[in-house]
Structure formats: structure tokens, C-alpha cells
């Protein structure tokens, strides 16, 4: 594989990874917004707390997945470029 082709593939891979991170961030923002709405609409403190805990767990899971995905993509791209 030519050097230019390898670098092109690496850039495409990193670009896709950045796109996934942006989508994950949008999903997390949406989930937190939904949780805030649920909390506002819920008079019981326990239900509101449960909605917030669920949103935070989702955020943690999505953040960890996005980070792992971006790190894997960066390692692969570095291998292609290097």
C-alpha cells in the first residue's frame, strides 16, 4: 500500500471516529435533557433521583465507549501512518 493511500485511510478512520464521538455527545446531551424533563415533571424525589442516576450511568457508559473507540481508531491510524 502506498504511503499516500495509508495516510488517506488513517485520516478517513480518524474522521469517522470524530463523527462517532460527536454523535455520542449528542445522544448523551439528549439523555440528560430527558432526565431533566422527567425530574421537572416528577413530584417524588425518589423518582427524580432514579431518573438522574439512570442518565449519569448512560453518560458514563457512552463516554467510556466513545473514548475506547477513539483510542482504538487512533492506534490503528498511527499504525497505518507509521
Describe what this molecule looks like in 3D:
The protein is an all-alpha fold. It has one domain (3-76). Helix content is 93%, strand content 0%. The chain has two helices and no strands. The protein has helices spanning 3-41, 45-81. α1 runs antiparallel to α2 (45-81). The model has no long low-confidence stretch (mean pLDDT 67).
Number of strands: 0
Strand content: under 5%
Helix segment count?
A: 2
Describe the main β-sheet briefly.
none
How far apart the termini lie comes to 12 Å
User: What is the helical fraction, as a range of percent?
Assistant: over 70%
Whole-number count of domains:
1
| Integer average pLDDT | 67
Low-confidence sequence ranges = none
The shape, in one word, is: rod-shaped
| Gyration radius over CA | 19 Å
Structural class: mainly alpha
Order of helices and strands: HH
Element layout with pairings:
Elements: H1 3-41, H2 45-81
Helix pairs in contact: 1-2
At a glance:
With 82 residues, the chain is mainly alpha-helical. It has 2 helices and no strands.
Structural descriptors:
82 residues; mainly alpha; 2 helices; 93% helix
Amino acid at each position: 500500500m502506498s504511503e499516500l493511500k495509508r495516510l488517506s485511510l488513517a485520516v478517513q478512520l480518524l474522521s469517522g471516529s470524530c463523527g462517532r464521538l460527536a454523535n455520542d455527545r449528542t445522544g448523551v446531551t439528549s439523555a440528560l435533557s430527558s432526565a431533566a424533563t422527567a425530574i421537572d415533571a416528577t413530584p417524588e424525589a425518589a423518582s427524580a433521583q432514579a431518573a438522574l442516576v439512570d442518565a449519569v450511568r448512560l453518560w458514563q457508559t457512552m463516554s467510556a465507549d466513545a473514548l475506547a473507540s477513539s483510542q482504538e481508531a487512533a492506534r490503528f491510524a498511527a499504525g497505518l501512518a507509521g
